[in-house]
C-alpha cells in the first residue's frame, strides 16, 4: 500500500529500489544574503544511480542535497522524485520516504540501537514484530550482531559501528532514495575504507538512488556511478562517470580538484581480474589479493610488501594468476614502476 500524505496525495511510491530524481533550475538564497548559495542547479538522476557531489567547503553541496528532502526549502525551481513534485508534498511525510545519513550520525543517545533503527518504521505504524524483524535484518546487513548490539546505547559503540547503525536506520523503511552527507567523514582511514567497501557491496544489492556528498575526490571515484564536480554556488563544472572525468577533465578547475596522479586514481576502477594475469606463484609467503579487489589494492600490496608479485585468489583460496607492477602498468597504459610508497598512499 502506498503511504499517503496528510493531504491524501501519494507521497513517494512504495518502491524499494531506486527512482528518478530531477532538479530543475533550483535556486537557494539564504535570508539576508544577496548571492545565492545554489544558483540555477539542474540535474537528472536515473533510478538506482549513486551520484557523488564533490566540491570545496562552502560551494553549496549540502544545501543542494538538503533541498531534496526539504530540510532546506528552495527559493525557486522544481524538484521531482519519480516524477512527483516534492514541493507539493507534506515535508514530514516526504522525509519518511527518503533515507538520510549524516557525518555526525545523529543517533538518539537515550534510545537503544534497536529503537534508533526502528524510529521511522514506528512512525509509519509498523507492528512491533515487523519492526523487530527488520532491525535484526538490518543489523546483519551492516555487519553488526543483533544479539550483541540491539540493546546497547549509541555511546557504547565505536564511531564506525555508529556509522553502520546510521546507515541501517536510513534503510529501515526501505526508501527508494538515500541522501548521504559525508557519512564516513568522521572515521579513521582504515574504518573509512572498510565502511566504503561494505557500502559498495550493499548498494550492489539494494540499488537505491543515492546522492552522496563528499570532500574527498578519491571517495567519489571509488563509490560513484557519476560524479558532479561543483564550484561556488553549486555550479556543475563536470558531471560524468569517474573514468571519463579522470580521462578527460572538463577544465582546469576539475583538473585541480582531481589533483596529481589521475592515471593512478583510475586503478580503483579496474578489478584485479581485468589485468592480464601471469602464472600464479607457488612460492610460500607470496602475498595474495582477493579477485574482487581492484588494481590499486594490488599495487598497494606490492609496494608495502616489496614482493615481486601478488597472487590473485578466489573466495575458496584458489589462485587464478598473479599481478606485477609491470602487468598493472600495462593494463593502465601508464608506467607505475616509479610509484614510491608515499605516492601510492597519496593515490
Ligand atoms: N543557514 C544558512 N544561512 C546563511 N548562509 C548559509 C546557511 N547555510 C549555509 N550557508 C552558506 O551557503 C553556502 C553553501 O553552504 P553549504 O553548507 O551548502 O556548502 P557545502 O559545500 O556543503 O560546504 P561544506 O563542505 O563545508 O559542508 C556557504 O557560503 C554557507 O556559508
UniProtKB/TrEMBL annotation:
Organism superkingdom: Bacteria
Which stretches make up the ABC transporter domain? 21-258
| Keyword line | ATP-binding, Nucleotide-binding, Transport
Q: What is its EC number?
A: 7.6.2.9
User: Which InterPro entries does this entry report, sorted A to Z?
Assistant: AAA+_ATPase (IPR003593), ABC_transporter-like_ATP-bd (IPR003439), ABC_transporter-like_CS (IPR017871), P-loop_NTPase (IPR027417)
Q: Name one Pfam family in it.
A: ABC_tran
PROSITE patterns for the chain: ABC_TRANSPORTER_1, ABC_TRANSPORTER_2
Q: Name one GO molecular function term.
A: ATP binding
The EC class name is translocase
**What family does the entry list?**
Belongs to the ABC transporter superfamily.
Q: Output this protein's name.
A: ABC-type quaternary amine transporter
Organism, scientific name: Rhodoglobus vestalii
Source organism phylogeny: Bacteria, Bacillati, Actinomycetota, Actinomycetes, Micrococcales
Amino acid at each position: 500500500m502506498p503511504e499517503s500524505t496528510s493531504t491524501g496525495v501519494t507521497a513517494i511510491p512504495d518502491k524499494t529500489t531506486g527512482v528518478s530524481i530531477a532538479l530543475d533550475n533550483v535556486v537557494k538564497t539564504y535570508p539576508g544574503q544577496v548571492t545565492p548559495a545554489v544558483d540555477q542547479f539542474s540535474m537528472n538522476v536515473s533510478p538506482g544511480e549513486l551520484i557523488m557531489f564533490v566540491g570545496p567547503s562552502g560551494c553549496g553541496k549540502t544545501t543542494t542535497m538538503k533541498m531534496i528532502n526539504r530540510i532546506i526549502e528552495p527559493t525557486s525551481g522544481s524538484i521531482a522524485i519519480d516524477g512527483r513534485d516534492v514541493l507539493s508534498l507534506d515535508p514530514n511525510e516526504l522525509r519518511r520516504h527518503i533515507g538520510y545519513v549524516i557525518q555526525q550520525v545523529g543517533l538518539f543517545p537515550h534510545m537503544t540501537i534497536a529503537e534508533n533503527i526502528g524510529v521511522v518504521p514506528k512512525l509509519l505504524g509498523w507492528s512491533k514484530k515487523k519492526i523487530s524483524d527488520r532491525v535484526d535484518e538490518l543489523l546483519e546487513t551492516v555487519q553488526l550482531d543483533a544479539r550483541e548490539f540491539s540493546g546497547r546505547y549509541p555511546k557504547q559503540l565505536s564511531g564506525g559501528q555508529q556509522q553502520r547503525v546510521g546507515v541501517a536506520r536510513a534503510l529501515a523503511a526501505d526508501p527508494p532514495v538515500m541522501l548521504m552527507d559525508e557519512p564516513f567523514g568522521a572515521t579513521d582511514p582504515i574504518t573509512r575504507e572498510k565502511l566504503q567497501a561494505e557500502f559498495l557491496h550493499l548498494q550492489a544489492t539494494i540499488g537505491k538512488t543515492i546522492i552522496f556528498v563528499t570532500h574527498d575526490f578519491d571517495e567519489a571515484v571509488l563509490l560513484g556511478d557519476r560524479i558532479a564536480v561543483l564550484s561556488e554556488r553549486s555550479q556543475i563544472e563536470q558531471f560524468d562517470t569517474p573514468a571519463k572525468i579522470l580521462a578527460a577533465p572538463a577544465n582546469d578547475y576539475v583538473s585541480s580538484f582531481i589533483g596529481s596522479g589521475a592515471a593512478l586514481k583510475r586503478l580503483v576502477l579496474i578489478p584485479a581480474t581485468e589485468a592480464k594475469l601471469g602464472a600464479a606463484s607457488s612460492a610460500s609467503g607470496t602475498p595474495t589479493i582477493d579477485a574482487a579487489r581492484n588494481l590499486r589494492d594490488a599495487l598497494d600490496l606490492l609496494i608495502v610488501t616489496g614482493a615481486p608479485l601478488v597472487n590473485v585468489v578466489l573466495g575458496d583460496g584458489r589462485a587464478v594468476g598473479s599481478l606485477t607492477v609491470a602487468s598493472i602498468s600495462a593494463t593502465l597504459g601508464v608506467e607505475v614502476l616509479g610509484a614510491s610508497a608515499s605516492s601510492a598512499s597519496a593515490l
